[in-house]
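Example for tutorial group B:
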């Protein structure tokens, strides 16, 4: 009996270990590609380029700064309208600056701010108005009428600049992101804020 138990014990241990391994394996897509899901809020430090963490931090700071101003609270209470112009990319790298403004606008809207589409997105809007009014496919009583679009009273714009320093052992990149809220009629800058980011890569 003891010899039988001695032979059985290694088998039981092997099955137990294999079971533990199956439980702790990271989930993948299941197609053999090795791709797995990560935390979209996790700090991203793959390169010194602007990344998702930088966009999230910038958008959060700009949104909170704007919402704390009496002007923005007045815009919310009066149901005023804002818009966002493209952010100027003054760096030597390429990235889609709309990621910044889109995130800011989304967060502002969640706090009661209304916004209209920007000029560079207007083509789809005008195409739809023309289609409804000139195609003959829609009842006149149900079409969106031309000439009723509302203009924004304020617009957000900004810029992203960088200074890059490097030698044989290190690369240092300093980013400065500036945002402004401008009254469209007068051209007065009613609010401004900046975010500084420094990223270092040791070779």
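The residue assignment follows.
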């Amino acid at each position: 009996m003891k010899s039988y138990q001695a032979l059985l014990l290694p088998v039981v241990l092997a099955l137990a270990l294999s079971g533990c391994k199956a439980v702790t394996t990271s989930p993948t897509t299941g197609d053999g590609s090795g791709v797995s899901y990560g935390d979209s809020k996790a700090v991203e430090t793959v390169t010194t380029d602007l990344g998702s963490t930088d966009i999230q931090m910038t958008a959060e700071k700009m949104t909170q700064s704007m919402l704390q101003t009496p002007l923005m609270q007045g815009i919310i209470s009066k149901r005023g309208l804002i818009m966002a112009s493209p952010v100027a990319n003054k760096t030597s790298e390429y990235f889609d600056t709309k990621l910044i403004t889109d995130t800011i606008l989304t967060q502002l809207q969640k706090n009661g701010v209304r916004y209209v589409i920007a000029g560079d997105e207007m083509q789809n809007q005008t195409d739809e108005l023309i289609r409804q009014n000139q195609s003959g496919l829609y009842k006149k009583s149900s079409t969106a009428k031309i000439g009723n679009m509302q203009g924004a009273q304020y617009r957000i714009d900004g810029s992203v600049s960088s200074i890059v320093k490097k030698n044989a052992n290190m690369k240092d990149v300093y980013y400065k992101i500036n945002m402004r809220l401008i009254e469209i009629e007068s051209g007065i800058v009613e609010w401004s804020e900046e975010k500084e980011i420094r990223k270092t890569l040791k070779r």
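The chain has a mean pLDDT of 83. Compare this with the pattern of hydrophobic and polar residues in the output above.
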